[in-house]
Amino acid sequence: MAKVKMLVQTTYNGQLLREGKEYDVADETAKRWDISRIAKIMKSKDNNK
């Protein structure tokens, strides 16, 4: 799991994720969102980052 800070508002798994808030998502999702500039990776829960 990775902690991300949302750069835009979106829905994920039926949940509304707000711009500027931090959420825990799967590592692969966090990487895709970082590349697409949907969210910024804050840190990994597994301390891999």
Output the keywords.
49 residues, 3-stranded antiparallel β-sheet, two-stranded antiparallel sheet
Describe this structure as you would to a colleague.
There is one protein chain. The protein has 49 residues and is of the alpha+beta class. The chain has one domain. Helices cover 18% and strands 43% of the residues. The chain has 1 helix and 5 strands, in the order E-E-E-E-H-E. The protein has one helix spanning 27-35; strands at residues 2-6, 10-12, 15-17, 22-25, 39-44. The chain has a 3-stranded antiparallel β-sheet, covered by helices on one side. The protein has a two-stranded antiparallel sheet with strand order 2-3. Strand 2 (10-12) and strand 3 (15-17) form a beta hairpin. The radius of gyration is 10 Å and the shape is globular. The termini are close together.
Write the layout of secondary structure elements.
Elements: E1 2-6, E2 10-12, E3 15-17, E4 22-25, H1 27-35, E5 39-44
Antiparallel strand pairs: 1-4, 1-5, 2-3
- The oligomerization state is single chain
Unreliable spans: none
User: Strand share of the residues?
Assistant: 35-45%
Class per helix and strand makeup: alpha+beta
Order of strands in the sheet with most strands: 4-1-5
Task: Please tell me how large the radius of gyration is.
Answer: 10 Å
Mean pLDDT: 91
Helix content: 10-25%
Given the structure, what is the number of helices? Answer: 1
The arrangement of helices and strands along the chain is: EEEEHE
Number of domains: 1
**Record field, number of beta strands:** 5
The rough form would be described as globular
- N- to C-terminal separation? 11 Å
Biggest beta sheet summary: 3 strands, antiparallel
